[in-house]
Amino acid sequence: MKRLSVQAPKGVVMIRPHHFGPNPMTAKDNAFQSTDEARKPSAIATAAFDEVTRMADGLSAAGVAVHLFEDETMTRPDSVFPNNWFSTHSGGHVAIYPMYSESRQSERRADIIEMLKNEYRVQDVIDYSGLEKDGVYLEGTGAMVLDHIGRVAYAARSNRTNEVALERFCTHFNFEPMVFGAVDRNGNSIYHTNVLMCIGTDFALIGTSMIPDAARRQEICARLEETGRQVIDLTIDQIENFAGNAIELDGADGRVVVMSARALASLRPDQVKAIEVSARVLAFDVPTIELAGGSVRCMLAGVHLSRREPAGTQKLYAATSDR
Predict the structure, then answer these.
(1) Which range of residues forms the domain containing residue 181?
(2) pLDDT in tens, 180-232
(3) CA dihedral defined by 112, 128, 148, 82, rounded to 10 degrees?
(4) Which of 197, 79, 84 is nearest to 137 (CA)?
(5) Considering Cα of 190, then 208, then 13, then 305, what sign does the dihedral take?
(6) CA angle 151, 155, 85 (to 5 degrees)
(7) Among 161, 171, 296, 314, which one has the highest count of C-beta atoms within 10 angstroms of its own C-beta?
(8) Phi/psi at 122 (nearest 5 deg)?
(9) How many structural domains compose the chain?
(10) Taking the C-alpha atoms of 22, 294, 102 and 85 in order, what is their torsion angle to the nearest 10 degrees?
(11) Which residues have CB under 8 Å from 312's CB, separation 6+?
């Protein structure tokens, strides 16, 4: 369990929103979004702030390096999901992505990129965001689920995943693209691949029944298994409860699989046991954040970079505001 893995980053970037609320401009193609009429917007915002704070504290306690940034604006309702606009890669590479919804394009922040350059060894930053002007989108590790071991980028077709942008990313970052169709119980395209699947070092969570093409479904499972992983099949109900929206991280005592309390509650004991062969499950209660159609994986942008200094000399996490 303590074996190091290029699949599991040691650090993450998180955004703590001060004015969170489900984004009406992304609801049309995100069937995972929901509303809460029982609470006032201010109560929802406060609850989301607290959920992010507890999760950042919990990850830090587990030995994960947490870089927590604040968003005090009222114009970026989905800023809590930074994995959609940037990703980091071993060898010192950073990618910045084009976002489908205009309401999300302002989430890109220069201060986060500068932090990465200051604290980690960044060799280059490739910015694809200019593709937005051409109506071409690729929403980061929401649109792609990356196998850093097998060098495969799994991507479900949607408004937020353009195959031209995907090919360009894969050429630059040395991944093989594997594109497939995936639909929910109503036949609508899954908006982001990372609600459908999670790839760990020794396992993969995936809702295979949501991939209509049987041949492609079999091919995907075969590619995952040929890297030595156990494929853990998720039901549609489990996907709807965000069981696929998880991420493997490297903590102080070995690897942890981070998911929401709702996701964990949806898993069968045998599925949890299969995960825990190689990693400990760490769950956080984020029901307010999940109103926006994303869960724990969406909240975490993994840092696959080498530090400029030993981790012990860095102040990894400090809450800048208490509430």
Answers:
(1) 11-313
(2) 999 999 999 898 999 999 999 999 999 999 999 999 999 999 999 999 999 99
(3) 40
(4) 84
(5) negative
(6) 90
(7) 296
(8) -100, 120
(9) 1
(10) 140
(11) none
